[in-house]
Amino acid sequence: MPSQGTIGDRVRGLRLSRRMSQAQLAGPDLSDSYVSLIESGKRTPTPVVARLLAERLGCTTEFLLHGIEPRQRIDTELGLRHAELELQHGDPSVAADRFGEIVKVAGEENAMLAAHARLGRARSLEAQGKVGPAVEAFERLRREAAAHPERLADLPLTVALSRCYHRAGDTLRARDLAALALSQMHHLALAQGEIAVELAASLVETEAGRPQSPGLSYVRHVLTVNGVPSVVNRTSEIHSLWEASVAAAEGEDSALAVRLADDAIATGRPARMAFRLAGIALEWARFAVSLGEASFDEAHGLATTASEVFSAFPEKVGEHAAGLVVLARLRLACKDPDGAAVLATSALDMLAGRAGPVAATGHLMRAEAALARGGGEVTAILGSARDLLNVFRAESSPPDRESARVWRELGDLYGRVGAGEEQANAYRRALEAAGVRDAMVGMTVDSALVR
To answer: Is residue 375 predicted with pLDDT exceeding 80?
Structure first.
């Protein structure tokens, strides 16, 4: 059965395959000229006319309108849901492949399904850390949303692009897009829901260090309205529903499979929202006190609650450790170096030698605590932080803004202990991590450049 092209193409193809004239297809209810207009794409049949034509052509209305049979459509919908579950609770690379397969199956004659699949693939690329390809995919989708607003909403794409550009090191573009999204959110008076939380998560990164920015005011508003909700670990329930959905699909009960997949996605939503809000709270707590934007009690409460959210999920050990590091930073801010050292050490024990910015920052908090106590082991501790950052640098090729921040902090601390050469090297690494390459050997680097 023909399925490519427009509604008009399908009407004409089916009519010719049945050796019918336009007048025969029109019958007593329609004119042959109207059928001709439909076939040429100059008219779109109403639902009533589509049902009438489908009956005479011997196909379903669904096929005539969308180029896909009901069973095919529900199977494609199921494929989208299983790909979404793979993205949220499985392997993002597998999810990207599955979304890509759906794009091919859906085709342009099923524009809505294809658009949703392309969006899923873009999100999967971002989840894999493939920021460049993700930006390209989101930009194409944004152009599609401008041309076909009935397929895709522009606002979530703007938020996603702001986040991706920031991670790619294009801060100005990221801030422009965030400002555009923020103006739309103010127009909608929206501070709850996934789009609002995603925007706040982007803004807390792009607007850090700009205490008077409207973006940070919005972040604070989102935190005030939503808080950091407690959440129960329902991972096993999600996977059970997912497996049941796959089993139902194998038994050719597609309707049940879709229902079970929807249940699995809905079951995971509270945790996804809690993780996002907890991440926002940690970022807010990290810089708000230093900027005088929040009291110690407020920041400590946010960081504690966020850390507790992550502690309930074994797979979130990195985020839990990050929460402890933020709490250590806050203990230092209130002149409690011993408490800071205990928290930082707990975070490092939790990470068990894992390289990366969080572990390196844990060592920096230990070094700050040692400096506050007048200890003499500071240089050795800083060396441990440097080693972890170098390992992470060797394993991670794209620019990393978080690593840049930690390298800069390491340089600051080397400066405080009078290690000038190590300080300059750390600042140089900070610039490299931020996407800047210094070709001037022996150049003195100003730490302000990488803040």
So the answer is: no
